[in-house]
Amino acid sequence: MDENNSGQTKSSNGHIVLTSHREQIFSETVDINWDAKSPAERGPIIGTFTENQKRNAIGSHSGSYTIYRALSIASGHFSKDHKPDLHNTNPTVNIGPHPSWTEPGKIVSLDPWGSNVNEFFKKDLEAGLDVRPTIAVTQAHLTIPEVQESIKNGTLKPDGNFVKENGELKVTKVALEPVWYLPGIAERLKIKEGELRNIIYQETGGMFPELITRPDLKILLPPIGSTTAYIFGDPKDLANPDVELTCRVHDECNGSDVFGSDICTCRPYLTYGIEQAAAAAQKGQVGLIVYFRKEGRALGEVTKFLVYNARKRQEGGDSPETYFQRTECVAGVQDARFQELMPDVLHFFGVKKIHHLHSMSNMKYDSIVGSGIEVVNRLSIPGHLVPEDAQVEIQAKKAAGYFTDEDIDDQKFAETRGRKLEE
Ligand SMILES: [Zn+2]
C-alpha cells in the first residue's frame, strides 16, 4: 500500500482494494468457530488491516473510536502500520474461561477470548498475525463524592482494603469492546441473519458492504460504544453462586452521571449501586457495576434533550402521565436499548446468580433472568435519593409497572409536575 498526492490509500498496483473482492481474499480468511471449546479451535478475531486477506471480521477495532483513528491517520499523526507492543498489557486478574464462554448462544456480542490474547493466541501472534485484545482488565481506585458523604455520616466505614481510610474504593475494572457474532445476534432478535445484515447495511448508509457481499464473514466489529465493568471484591467470586453478588447494570446518562443533572435518577442509582457493591466486598461478598454506553435509552443525547423540551413545554406541564408518550413522539420509540444483549457481560464473568439487583427496569430483569441467571432480590434506591425534578420519571415508571420497593401513590402520580424550562 502507498499514498498518492491526495493522500488516498491505494494498493501497490494503484487501485483501492475493495474488501468485497471475492478472488482477492476469500482463500486466506482465518476460520472462526464461535462456540468452540478452546481459543485454538475458535480462532483469533482478525479485524486489523495489516494483512487484509486474513481478516475475518467486518469493521475495525475500538468501537466508535475507529473513526477518530482514521482521522488521526488522515492528519498524518498516526502510522496506519502500527502494531501494538502488547508486552506487560496482560490482565491484572484472569477472568475465566467459564463454561458460559462456549455454551452455544450464551455470549454473542463480545469475544470472551478477547482479553488475554498473549496467552490465548500466542501461536498466532508468534506467527505474525495482528491479533488485538478487545477486553482489558486493570486495577483502580475510585473517589465518589456521594460515597465520601456516606463515610462522613457513618453509613459506610473504611476497612483499609476495599474502602480506604481516605474514602477511595479499590476496584478491578474491565473494558469490553463490542464483537458481534451475527448469527447469534440474529437469533436473539428472532430474525434471519440475512435480514439483520440487510438492515444494518441499509441503516448505516452502506457503511459495511461486506454485510451483503461476504456472507462468510460472521463477525461484525460495530462502531458503537464499549462497556466497562467495575468489580468490588474478588472477581473470581462473580462465578460462584454461593458468594452473594450485588449488581447494577447501568446505561449511560451523561447529563446525570457526570454533570449531576436532576431530571432523572441515573446518577443516584449509579452511586448508590457503587456504595452497595463496595459494602458487599467488605462483607466478603462481591459487587459488580456494568456501565453500558447506551446514552438516552440508546437514542442519543440530542433526541433526549429534544424530549426534555417537549416534556416541559407541553400543555399542563411535565407530568408522569405523558412521560413515555413525549419520548415516543420525538424518537418514534419509548426505548431503543434492546436489553437482550446486555447479559452477555454477566456470562463473560460466569455469573449464575445475582442476590441483589439494583434496578427498576423490567426489561433488564427479564433479559437477565431469560438468559438463565437467577435473581433473588430486586432493589430500587431509597426515596430520599430521588431529586425533586426526577419525581416525574419515577412516578411514571412506577405507574408503568417498573419495579419499586415502595407503594404506588395515585395522588402523587396525579399531582407530580416537573420544573418548567425557564425556572
Ligand atoms: Zn438519566
Uncertain regions spanning at least 5 consecutive residues: 1-12
User: Roughly how much helix do the residues carry, as a percent range?
Assistant: 25-40%
Strand content: 5-15%
Largest sheet: spatial strand order? 4-5-8-10-9-11-12
Task: Characterise this structure.
By secondary structure, the protein is an alpha/beta fold. It has helices spanning 22-25, 39-42, 66-74, 117-120, 122-126, 145-152, 182-189, 193-203, 210-213, 254-257, 266-282, 295-298, 301-313, 323-331, 343-348, 362-370, 391-399, 410-415, and strands at residues 2-3, 9-10, 57-59, 135-142, 169-176, 180-181, 219-221, 227-232, 245-251, 286-292, 353-358, 374-379. The strands form 3 sheets. A 7-stranded mixed beta sheet has the order 4-5-8-10-9-11-12, sandwiched between helices. A 3-stranded mixed beta sheet has the order 3-7-6. A hairpin with a 5-residue loop joins strand 1 (2-3) and strand 2. The longest helix has 17 residues, at 266-282. The radius of gyration is 23 Å and the shape is globular. Bound molecules: zinc ion (ZN). Zinc ion is lined by residues 253, 256, 264, 266.
